Amino acid sequence: MIKERRQALRTPSAVPLEIYDPKGRMVVGEGRFLNLSETGGLMESPKPLKTKSSVRLHMVSAGKSALEILGHIVWSRKQESGFTYGIRFSNREPSQAN
User: Fold this and answer.
1) How far apart are CA 37 and CA 30, in angstroms?
2) What is the pLDDT of residues 53-76, one digit of tens each?
C-alpha cells in the first residue's frame, strides 16, 4: 500500500490562472489548477518555470475579482501539452521566500 504524503485533501479543479513573478510582472500569462488543497495545488502551464521559484497566481473566475495566491514551485514535469507543477502556498511575500 502506498502511503499518502499530502497533509491536506486535494479537490479537482479547472480554475484558470494568470501567473506572475514575485514582483507582479506577467511571467507566462495563463495556466490552470488541476487540483487544490489548503496547502497547495497541481498547476499546468504551457511554459517552463523554474523549480524552487516563487510565483504570484491570480485565480480568475467569471464575473468576480481575481484572488491572489502566493506560492513556490516545488517540482515540475514536462508533459505533451506543456508542464505540470506542484505548488506550495505561502503566507509570506514571494520576495521573502527562500
Assistant:
1) 20
2) 999 998 877 777 778 899 999 999
Nearest one of 34, 52, 54, 53 to 44, comparing CA atoms: 34
* 47 within 8 A of 85, measured Cβ to Cβ: no
Query: pTM score > 0.90 for this model?
Result: no
- CA 90/CA 81 separation, integer angstroms: 27
Cα–Cα dist 69/75, whole Å: 18
CB 56 within 8 A of CB 68: yes
The 3-state DSSP class for residue 69 equals: strand
